[in-house]
Write the structure tokens for this entry.
Amino acid sequence: MKPFQWDHVRLLLALLRAKNLEQAAAELSVDRSTISRRLTSLEHELGVRLFARTRDGVKPTSAALRLRPLASDMEAAATALSNAATSSEQSVRATVRVATTEAMAALLVTEGLLSVTDQHPELVIELLCGNQTVGLERGAADISLRVAPVRDASLKVRCIARFGLGLFAAPSYLDARSPIHGRAGLVGHDVLLPTGELSRMPEARWLAARKGVRVVFRSNSLPALVAAALAGRGLVALGLSWSANPGLRLVLPLEELPKRPLWLVTRAEDSGRAAVRVVSERIAAILGRAFSSAR
């Protein structure tokens, strides 16, 4: 078998992040037939099926999911190598504003976003947190993380992860209440519901529609909902990456809800800016790794 090449890594990650061949092709700036041909060639070289082609798009096999964390690490290493090679040529000296939610901001900080300033001491990262979309076209931020699709010729959009959803609760809550076996087992349980902008999310509408549950708390702040769940006050709907939180236990995967894409958005004119590129790549590596481990 030939050595695994960097182009193979880029192809694998693009397909893992995309919903279909067209989206992967757009990320790699090639056409659909090229992506299909490269995938067939790679699977032939490896002697293993990586993706199942369906009417709904491409579905990763267990082999592809095993490769994902390794490919993500290679991507992060390649970015670090590139940054190290160019750091003396192009100083990263700027403030980069990142618009995201409170929960996503906390995840980024916990998983090492700020360590990028170890290599670039004159780089400042500013996290702008909230549930309202910040408009990059108005210059309010340099990078935005969004779960809603974006269509604007002035923006560069990249799918960096896809994540599933589930119901979570603290062990203390689950130990004190009746076991939950499927949707029917939710009857009689306490739930924590999002309000405001968060109430539009599919998991919020799904949980609000359950009959026989008791709503004990509402908030437009995801960290507040998580805090209530950690305190043992009820069930909360979250992305599966929260499985890594030792204070929460996954109760019920919401498999009927489609996996949600996470889009990294920058202004097209800023794609060449060293500071924006460095921060974007670190964010993509962190979230790609975090959400791949939650599959």
Summary: The domain at 6-84 is CATH 1.10.10.10 (Arc Repressor Mutant, subunit A). The chain has a mean pLDDT of 84.
